[in-house]
Specification:
Blueprint lengths: L9 E5 L5 E3 L4 E3 L1 H9 L4 E5 L7 H14 L7 H10 L4 H22 L4 H41 L4 H15 L1
Parallel strand pairs: 1-4
Antiparallel strand pairs: 1-2, 2-3
Helix pairs in contact: 1-2, 3-5
Length: 177
Amino acid sequence: MSATGRNDVRLIKKYPNRRLYDTRTSSHITLADIRQLVISEEPFQVVDAKTGEDLTRSILLQIIQEAEGDGEPIFSTEMLKGIIRFYGPFQGMLGSYLEKSIQSVIDVQTQAGLQSSQAWSEFMQAQAPMMQDLMRQYVEQTKKLYLNTQNMFGVFSGLGGAGAGSSKKEGDEGQKA
């Protein structure tokens, strides 16, 4: 594969009628074709044909959504809920964690020489419950950290906020005695 550069990136245009057009082959393609580009590690970019807006992430999410509907999904309902909970203050941390985790799995695949899709599929099916459990534990630990942090800041915000009224009443009774 050649070095990554603008000329190496395959341009896919998405038209208002939802059709995808591969400018390299001058033909319409499907999401399955784009999935194959991902699998074969061919660099590409999907843009809106009218505005030029980059739609690559949106298309990739559509491919994931379709794949999740076929067969056994990677993301359980609880896992998806956990991911949704991370949007906000911990969003970057989870994204980085997931990216590094997936890269580690890819590295293991490469090092082990698991080139056949059947062997890779079997490997991943064996690892999926363990990976889901690790992610669940990670999400739970992060949730506890987040709640502990909120509780800590709740103590400090209580000094001048709504919590001050209730502690003031207790303090007033102590001062009157």
